[in-house]
Amino acid sequence: MKFQETVKLNKIPDDNSKLVLTIFSLFLICIFLFSISFDMYKKYNLKPRLKFFEKDQTYLDMENKLSNFRYDEIDHEQFLNKLIFLKNNNFYNYFEISVLDNNTIYYKVSNDNKKTLKFGSITPDNPLYLNFNDDFSIDLSNIKFIDKIFVNNSIYQINVDKSYALKKFDINKLIDHK
Which pTM does this prediction carry? Predict the structure, then answer.
């Protein structure tokens, strides 16, 4: 028996099926990763809508009451011109606002030295009381309901005919005003 020394091999045809399958699988993986990352972005990074609570009757009453508040803004000079000087008293170095019975005024006090904000409401049994130790400015929601303003040794009343909002009023201007 005699063996041939050369073996004839057939040429393997060019087949790109592995390359096509690899590209297709990479494409599917990229789409899958993109969709998952986009879903995570939507879930955690978009601004949430405030639907975490159910509106009860108190919320609806407050929403109705706040929707009725429409104020015109009044500037510092107009506010000072509307003040009526009543008399001197024995109070020292402070600022106080009291309101008329059964009324409420909302305020924001900015302490310019300490860079702090204080929010609250002024009621007949809870007047706003501030010492003149720092530099303050104040926002008031409805100055029509102010009963009296006590500034150092002076007492003032406000004379306005409609609801006004006072923005960034420098309380120190009341010291110079007589």
Answer: 0.51
